[in-house]
Amino acid sequence: MHSYEPHDEGAAAEIVRAAAATSERLRLVGGGTKSGIGRPAQDEATLSGASLTGITLYEPAEMVVAARAGTPLAEVQAMLAARGQMLPFEPMDHRPLMGTTGEPTFGAVAAANNSGPRRINAGAARDSLIGVRFVNGRGEAIKSGGRVMKNVTGLDLVKLMAGSWGTLGLLTEVTFKVLPVQERVATLVFADLDDARAIAALSAALGSPFELTGAAHLPGGIEGAGPRTLMRIEGFSESIDYRLEELRRLLKRFGQPEIVEGEAGTVLWARIRDAVAFAEPRDSAIWRISTAPTRGPAVTAAIGARRDARWFYDWGGGLIWLATDASGDAGAEIIRTAVRAEGGHATLVRAPDAVRAAVPVFEPLSEPLMRITTGIKAAHDPKGLFNPGRMYAGI
């Protein structure tokens, strides 16, 4: 199998034009940390963006950063941290869950729309992504967006590339808005709530004016602990003191919370962000379910009544991480039936190749949506060169 690793956008475009001439199918890769997500590869060569590196723009006053797609995410984050800034959406590190090595790249954050616990407050990666450069399936270098947020008429290529998993083009550069790091972070931890009461507590807090930046529930048995319901707030120290007291008063019917700050809180939310509790056993299947926050307990109850599974909630109940046995269809029929009944979608994040080849990994699309998706793919990658079949069979 051929392996291409261009050092600039022009070389990448030449490689794609040559591949288009021979219809050589290309697997697009960055750091390889998410290589097991999606349907098994149906390609003939790899095209890596790992050598497209370097921070190309940083304007702290404008709160904008741009870097080539292969730039290590940690390099960008370290530079931002040195100036008291951060990516708003808290991107997940997939390595613990996927058992991968390598280095997460800046472009992959956009390609996977990689968003962690702070999404409830700051939005997804897509919402902070304001500019992209990419090479399409014709070998053309395309630039869309720039240094400021703005509305445009027509197809929004910036948002379209976010979450496209390398199926529409090779990202060569991405631009994100950033935010200041907050002075103080505190987490309220309520003990021993069942799923329904925990989500009720989270919903009450999220509906308050006290601005949570994290809202998760870990049922009993997750990492060997009892049930824990977590609410994170950030800001100036005086504001934190006031909001802690108000949240205690608002939520007193759910008990008295422990307050966690400092490194312990940082580690706690990193483990939730990265779904570390489900890293082992390595042979279990991992699902990522999105639904309306208040419907989360109904979804898991329906699944748990028919299949042995473990789960925890993020995004106030709107994101469910679920681990189950990978045998058969890895629970796909049961899980998707439960999700359809309540509304939402389910993605099979981790499973053996044979399961991912037989079971739709991403939520199956309705016929109208599949027609639109197929048309978008054909417009950007007419010969189907990029990551063929990774998201949906045949496209």
Would you kindly provide a written description of the structure presented here, covering whatever features stand out?
The chain has 395 residues and is α+β, with helices and mostly antiparallel strands. Helices cover 32% and strands 25% of the residues. The chain folds into 3 domains: 205 residues, Uridine Diphospho-n-acetylenolpyruvylglucosamine Reductase, domain 3 (2-Layer Sandwich), CATH 3.30.465; 90 residues, 2-Layer Sandwich (Alpha-Beta Plaits), CATH 3.30.70.2190; 83 residues, Malonyl-CoA ACP transacylase, ACP-binding (Alpha-Beta Plaits). It contains 14 helices and 18 strands. Strands 4-5-9-7-8 form a 5-stranded antiparallel β-sheet. A 4-stranded antiparallel β-sheet has the order 12-13-11-14, with helices on both faces. Strand 4 and strand 5 form a beta hairpin. The protein is globular, with a radius of gyration of 21 Å. About 1% of the residues have low confidence.
What tags apply to this protein structure?
FAD-bd_PCMH, FAD, flavoprotein, alpha+beta, 4-stranded antiparallel sheet, Alpha-Beta Plaits, 32% helix, 5-stranded antiparallel sheet, 395 residues, Glycolate oxidase FAD binding subunit, 18 strands
Q: What is the distance, rounded to the nearest whole angstrom, between the alpha carbons of the first and last residues? A: 21 Å
Largest sheet features: 5 strands, antiparallel
Biggest β-sheet: strands ordered side by side in the sheet:
4-5-9-7-8
What gross morphology would you assign?
globular
Which residues sit in consecutive blocks of at least 5 with pLDDT less than 50?
149-153
Share of helix, binned: 25-40%
Structural class, by secondary structure, is alpha+beta
Our Rg estimate from Cα atoms comes to 21 Å
Secondary-structure arrangement, i.e. CATH architecture of the largest domain: 2-Layer Sandwich
Compute the number of strand runs: 18
Average pLDDT confidence is 95
For the record, the count of structural domains works out to: 3
Strand content: 15-25%
